[in-house]
Amino acid sequence: MEIIVCDSPHDVAVQAADILQGYANEGGVLGVATGSTPLLTYQELIRRHKAGEVSFAGCTMFALDEYVGLPIEHEQSYYRVIHDEFSDHVDIDPADVHIPNGLADDVPAACAGYEQAIVDAGGIDVQLLGIGTNGHVGFNEPASSLSSLTRMKTLHPQTVVDNARFFNSVDEVPIHVVTQGLGTIQRAGQLVLIATGEHKAHAVAQLVEGPLSAACPASVLQIHPHATVIVDEAAASRLNNVDYYKFIQQNKPQ
Ligand code: GLP
Asked: CB of 36 closer than 6 A to ligand 1?
């Protein structure tokens, strides 16, 4: 894992955008995430797009996850979030933006179809990830199989509470979701996990320095050959070896 510690959430977004921009300009397959953390990265990429620095014209996007049973018109459906916060503001063909279907009559079949669509696109080149306070990635909650594929999951009560801020009340948060699995995520060519804020410090410490364990689903990054973790100082505050990670960044081989 490469660990990049930044001074601010803005710098985290700039670093993540730098990586995604390279793939985008090559017409790559981009895995996109929801939650509040990636929004600054999307804003940075939209700014660069408007400045003519990055094009998504030849790209394909696959979202990580979606709520089950939430109409796609609902402003908190991940369909809407990806479109409203990112893809509608850049030059990707909307037909090339894929979101898991949480409204399918046959959810398992839709999940298998989503998995196949990723394969048919040639696989995800770069997957952007956030992290939940309990170490989840996508909606892979603790105890998720490390080799799982896209499927339905039941949210942890902590995640429901964490995500209630996006809804009028906690009762409105769907408890069932569809998510790319940890196995799906591991197939991506590069993983870029971003985290900011002190409330993520424990999860980041478990991800980077804890054991490889389904108890912290994000720890699956430890066995990925090309994983990059980009955090601000607050999210890095519980890392024992933070000085070493900074030393590595300051002394990269030429
Ligand atoms: C949700 C999403 C995750 C995201 C997490 C953290 O549960 N399914 O993909 O990483 O929230 O969100 P935030 O960035 O808002 O803290």
From this structure: yes
